[in-house]
């Protein structure tokens, strides 16, 4: 069972990146997926989450309107499209999976604190230069 985040890199402020979270060893259909980030010297932050159905999403205020989470269950992958990047978005980004009912519309309560997230992937570094 493994989650792998990828797609990070160095980008100028105002640029875009798309992160991918690929699962192996299990299918994501039964999981809500969250993206988290941690900048040096700062606490981990819940960035965005998507329900197992894809019908419900949530974004941290800091990224609302700039980031979009989506999922492609056929590819067993969840994406985080990041536009209008800012230097303060610089962090290691992680994805995590929390079990829910198949096709559930609901997010996991307190997902942004990491609650209910059973599987965590290794992070991918995003660096936004000013």
Task: Give your account of this protein's structure.
- This protein has 130 residues and is an all-beta fold.
- Helix content is 0%, strand content 48%.
- The protein contains no helices and eleven strands.
- It has strands spanning 2-6, 9-12, 17-24, 31-38, 45-50, 57-59, 67-72, 77-82, 91-99, 119-120, 124-129.
- The strands form two sheets. Strands 2, 4, 5, 6, 9, 10 and 11 form a seven-stranded mixed sheet that branches. Strands 1-3-8-7 form a four-stranded antiparallel sheet, with no helix packed on it.
- A hairpin with a 6-residue loop joins strand 5 (45-50) and strand 6.
- The chain is globular.
- The relative contact order is 0.32.
- The mean pLDDT is 95.
What are the salient characteristics of this protein?
130 residues, mainly beta, four-stranded antiparallel beta sheet, 48% strand
Task: List the topology elements.
Blueprint: E1 2-6, E2 9-12, E3 17-24, E4 31-38, E5 45-50, E6 57-59, E7 67-72, E8 77-82, E9 91-99, E10 119-120, E11 124-129
Parallel strand pairs: 2-11
Antiparallel strand pairs: 1-3, 3-8, 4-5, 4-9, 5-6, 7-8, 9-10, 9-11
